[in-house]
Amino acid sequence: HAQNGDDEAAAWATVEQQWNAVRHGEKDWVEDLLSADFVGWPSNSPAPRNKSSTRLWNDFNARQSELLEYELYPQSILIHGNTAVVHYLYSAVNKTKGQESRSSNGRYTDILVRADEGWKFIAWHGGAYR
């Protein structure tokens, strides 16, 4: 299915776009890339976060730390109709104010839905290995 290959590439491009936006300190990615009904659960959060909570914590984290570099390792991309499930690993280096830079490795599962403007995140779960 050529269409599935195109959809897989487009869904993965959205994942890369989100990481790249964080890396470059862009703030609009939450509004641009998350669906209105988004709910994600990062492993460092005690509960799932909706879009406004994700925006709040992203803004806070952007003031406290900086993503210096990252690399993503796609593991599996499944397209099912208008839904994409993307499993991937990552390596990242972050620098928090007043601290040394710190490396981390982890994994995410992102769920995206097809929208008029392309793929948007509807949910995710993951984070750094503990």
CATH classification class:
Alpha Beta
Number of domains: 1
What is the helix/strand order? HHEEHEEEE
Number of helices: 3
CATH topology tier name = Nuclear Transport Factor 2, Chain: A
Oligomer: single chain
Helix content: 25-40%
Poorly predicted residue ranges: none
Assess the beta-strand content as a share of residues: over 45%
Query: Based on helices, strands and strand pairing, what is the structural class?
Result: alpha+beta
Largest sheet: 6 strands, mixed
Note the overall shape. Answer: globular
**Cα end-to-end separation:** 38 Å
Protein traits:
130 residues; alpha+beta; Nuclear Transport Factor 2, Chain: A; 6-stranded mixed sheet; 32% helix
Structural features, described:
The structure is a single chain. The protein is of the alpha+beta class. The protein has a single domain, classed as Nuclear Transport Factor 2, Chain: A (Roll). Helix content is 32%, strand content 48%. The chain contains 3 helices and 6 strands, in the order H-H-E-E-H-E-E-E-E. It has a 6-stranded mixed β-sheet. A hairpin with a 2-residue loop joins strand 3 (65-80) and strand 4 (83-96). The longest helix has 22 residues, at 2-23. The radius of gyration is 15 Å and the shape is globular. The protein starts with a helix and ends with a strand. The mean pLDDT is 95.
